[in-house]
Amino acid sequence: PHPPILLTNHYRSEDQIISLCNRAFYEGRLKILSTLDYGKFPSSLPLGVQWQDVAGEVLKHPSGSRINMREVDEVCRIFQQVISKISGTNLTVGVVTPYSRQRQAIYEKIISMVSAELLEKHDVKILTAHKFQGSEKEM
User: Strands 9-10, 31-32: parallel, antiparallel or unpaired by DSSP?
Assistant: First the structure.
């Protein structure tokens, strides 16, 4: 019965991400005022929104959560590429997934591939969307 309350200004998200929301939900009225410094990103690193379609079987874990092992493998492959490309920087990395069992599988695989020092240096967080909400990462 009430009209939605919409933001006027936006300061946090990467420009391409919030631009998508701006077109889809704000009809272009949202003022995007984020100040992401693209100069600190390695030129070999693709910026903005990326999409990788991964087919695979989604299994229901006994806990009720879901897991797709092909997707786990692909996320870890991309993660390893990103980590190698940001070597020598202090950029931070976040991996977001909707399911806790998927998060656990990604976490286990990543910690077996990358040193604890490297994970700490880049403040790597692997969380569900629910737990990540409100957090910030550069990658």
Answer: parallel
C-alpha pair distances (Å), 40 with each of 25, 83, 89, 95, 139: 30, 15, 8, 20, 12
Q: From first to last of its 139 residues, what are the pLDDT tens digits of the chain?
A: 888 888 899 887 777 788 888 999 899 999 988 877 778 888 888 776 677 889 899 999 888 899 999 999 999 999 999 999 998 888 889 898 889 999 999 999 999 999 999 999 999 999 998 887 766 565 4
The H-assigned helical ranges of 6-68 are 15-25
In terms of pTM, does the model score above 0.85?
A: no
* Strand positions, DSSP E, 39-108: 59-60, 66-67, 94-97
Give the β-pairing of 94-97 and 125-128.
parallel
Element at 39 (helix H, strand E)? none
| Side-chain half-sphere exposure of 8, counting CA atoms within 13 A | 0
CB 72 within 8 A of CB 102: yes
